[in-house]
UniProtKB/TrEMBL annotation, chain B:
It comes from Streptomyces hundungensis. The lineage of its organism: Bacteria, Bacillati, Actinomycetota, Actinomycetes, Kitasatosporales. One of its GO terms (molecular function) is (3R)-hydroxyacyl-[acyl-carrier-protein] dehydratase activity. Its EC number is 4.2.1.59. Coiled coil: none annotated. InterPro entries: FabA_FabZ (IPR013114), HotDog_dom_sf (IPR029069). This is 3-hydroxyacyl-[acyl-carrier-protein] dehydratase FabZ. Pfam families: FabA. It is an enzyme of class 4 (lyase).
């Protein structure tokens, strides 16, 4: 991967991260600034403190917005923001 | 499809059929008839609102309005019918079976809008569409109308228990 390709990839990843963070905050009515959510932050437990019921809403939001389906086979993709970004990018490529 | 014979014309499932599928009983048995059904996917049901319903004596004296929360419960019970018939079909090949002990639970109510009061004499038509499933939770979309007037739109999350 060239430096230019790496820069493009990183920029795209950063933009996607911000989109997903904004989606999280909007759809789950979180009282946080999207920009304050870290890319490695766990989404459940002591992370954003989402619960199991939020999983369904988050999966629907991701499908509505990015056309990417989350099922029982890949709910591990919801453990952190980075894992979710990996899943979205893998499904879209 | 089942060869059972609902008592009333236009019924896919009679009240007696619904009672076999659901654990609910008076005063919390709310649906009168299922008029369209695709097990596991969608359904339509009716409920007739009557002034003799005990809940209307207190909601409200002198101004009877069927409680919005009970309209939401009707949608939840219709969801139980949709998944209960799917479970009965898998287990027995019939859409009506004794699956009441396997009915799941209401997990979340989202975006409930009560668009018009429902009063005695109204026949409420409920429609339900099943949505996404993740981790034992199912999203369902419900609407209710009286004649051509929408009275409720709501999204629920319900749990499904193994049939």
């Amino acid at each position: 991967m060239s430096l230019e390709e790496a820069t493009t990839h990183a920029t795209r990843r950063h933009q996607l991260a911000l989109e997903v963070k904004t989606l999280l905050v909007d759809r789950l009515a979180l009282d946080v600034d999207p920009a304050s959510i870290g890319d490695d932050q766990p989404l459940f437990g002591r992370g954003l403190e989402l619960d199991s019921i939020d999983t369904l809403e988050l999966a629907m939001a991701v499908e509505d917005t990015f056309g990417v389906t989350l099922t029982d086979d890949n709910t591990h993709s919801l453990l952190s923001l980075n894992r979710l970004l990996d899943h979205i990018q893998a499904e879209q490529s | 499809m089942s060869d059972h014979s609902p008592a009333a014309a236009g019924a896919v499932l009679s009240a007696d059929d619904i009672a076999r599928l659901l654990p609910h009983r008076h005063p919390f048995f709310l649906l009168d008839r299922v008029t369209a059904l695709e097990p596991g996917t969608s359904a339509e049901a009716i409920k007739n609102i009557t002034s003799s319903d005990a809940v209307l004596a207190g909601h409200f004296p002198g101004r009877m309005i069927y409680p919005g929360v009970l309209l939401v419960e009707c949608v939840a019970q219709l969801a139980a019918v949709v998944y209960g018939t799917a479970g009965a079909l898998r287990a027995t090949g019939e859409i009506v079976g004794d699956v009441a002990d396997r009915v799941g639970y209401l997990a979340e109510i989202r975006q409930a809008k009560f668009l018009k009061p429902v009063v005695p004499g109204d026949q409420v038509v409920f429609r339900l569409q099943s949505g996404a499933r993740v981790g034992g939770l199912i999203s369902v979309t419900g609407q209710a109308s009286v004649g051509s007037d929408p009275v409720l739109t709501v999204r629920l999350a319900v749990t499904e228990r193994d049939a």
